[in-house]
Amino acid sequence: MREFDYRRADDVSGAVALLGDDPDARYLGGGTNLVDLMKNGVERPARLVDVRGLPLDRIEPAGDGGLRIGATVTNSDLAAHPGVRRNYPALTQAVLAGASGQLRNMATVGGNLLQRTRCGYFTDVTKPCNKRRPGSGCPAVEGEHHNHAILGASDHCVAVHPSDMGVALTAFDAVVTYRTADGEGELPLADFYLPVGDTPHRETALPPGALVTGVTLPPAPVAARSRYRKVRERASYAFAIGSVAAALDVGGGVVREARLAFGAVASRPWRARAAEAVLNGAPATAEFFAAAADAELAAARPLPDNGYKVTLMRNLVVAVLSELAEEAAR
Amino acid sequence: MAPSTSSTVTLNINGEKHTLSVDHRTTLLDALRERLDLTGTKKGCDHGQCGACTVLVDGRRTVSCLQLAVASDQREVTTVEGLADGDRLHPVQQAFLDLDGFQCGYCTPGQICSAVAVIEEHAAGWPSAVTGDVSPEAGPPPLTPEEIRERMSGNLCRCSAYVQIVEAVSRAAAENRTGTEEAAA
């Protein structure tokens, strides 16, 4: 590991000033991803600015019925929060489906959104990777890609975003707030991650030096009946090979409102808007749930070894929406 | 302030303060083992994937291999060496002994620290990934074997002593509940 300078920030503006415009400096949150990447040599910062002690560790009502979640709230505290469990249960389920109890105690909301892909080529510095070394190539396209993207990828990169939390936040229209030396800014999560294109090394729309300060969840009555379902290669403590965050409001057998987002299928948490368009106003039946999944997955471009994800996601959507519809009918 | 690659930190470990100079690259795990001779905490994968290095930081279970020592300044750390009350083992330690919750023993300090926290997290009402209804109105789920397996999934055991580990955690949790009820009575 490269030697590095370490500074602890006392307040948000101090943290932003400590990082400055140094491209070799990084904010340190829980460190569960960054410290690991430093051990692997993927990240070689010259300076860490520790933001874990900043007063951004609160979850507060957002006034209009939503929630304002500070960037240094740990995954554990987010999942255990009564308001999240009551009004956005899929978010609690998504967080609890990720990592382990130990890691959830350390990891933060801001860091979760900014964590890097677990693609084996990205984390192995002896291999080419367009995300880590632009222009060096993507061995995953013709190599090991059974857990790579089926939506929104390019020939330059087929890695997936590993977050579970982000999938539920995407379904609920979360907005990321940040601070730079110029002041406050915000980005809807839908615009937070950049399209892959030929620049997979550029992952977010955050300005240089920006510190994520929190996530705002707008009020979403539909989210009270929501669910996160994750499929992985072992029963617990593994990244998803496919996941769904869904919320459903049904009246008289008809879908009044649906929210749907997919995980582990794209470079970002994937909001399934084509599926939602089919669902809204449609009969709440397995037939229409399948049609909705098909509408979204029509854009899928699977690689030779990850075509199973198309079937998996279709089945997941039908299963989770059917369960939610059944609950609503009770 | 000029850049520096080391700092002086004070770690409060098992109730005792230790002040030491650490290279910023030093993890809490390496500080415990290599600098303070607290070798109960074990290094397994060193990448946060096995749980062997689990300790409690400010009361919360943490993988010490991904926690930088410099970022642990002034924090309260409890390692497996700090769980017993003199010669009296912690109920979780006693349950692991009585119920054979290990074979080779390498993962055991991490398992035990993790289990101590699991019992507290459950008592605080935290749901888990296998909890059916996560709403606060549903109340805490019973600590079934399924719940224990899920909550302990961050601790791997290559000897596969999982069956006995689940039994040990289950017994210690039951004792903890009884103790809490007696204290309240």
UniProtKB/TrEMBL annotation, chain B:
A Pfam entry, by short name: Fer2_2
Annotated signal peptide: none
Domain 2Fe-2S ferredoxin-type span(s) in chain numbering: 7-83
Statement: the UniProt record of this protein carries the keyword Metal-binding: yes
UniProt cross-references to Gene3D superfamilies, sorted A to Z: 3.10.20.30, [2Fe-2S]-binding domain
Keywords from the named record: 2Fe-2S, Iron, Iron-sulfur, Metal-binding, Oxidoreductase
Pathway: Alkaloid degradation; nicotine degradation
InterPro entries per the UniProt record, alphabetical: 2Fe-2S-bd (IPR002888), 2Fe-2S-bd_dom_sf (IPR036884), 2Fe-2S_ferredoxin-like_sf (IPR036010), 2Fe-2S_ferredoxin-type (IPR001041), 2Fe2S_fd_BS (IPR006058), Aldehyde_Oxdr_Iron-Sulfur (IPR052914), Beta-grasp_dom_sf (IPR012675)
GO molecular function: 2 iron, 2 sulfur cluster binding; metal ion binding; oxidoreductase activity, acting on the aldehyde or oxo group of donors
Domain of life: Bacteria
PANTHER family assigned: OXIDOREDUCTASE WITH IRON-SULFUR SUBUNIT, OXIDOREDUCTASE, IRON-SULPHUR BINDING SUBUNIT-RELATED-RELATED
The name this protein goes by in its record: (2Fe-2S)-binding protein
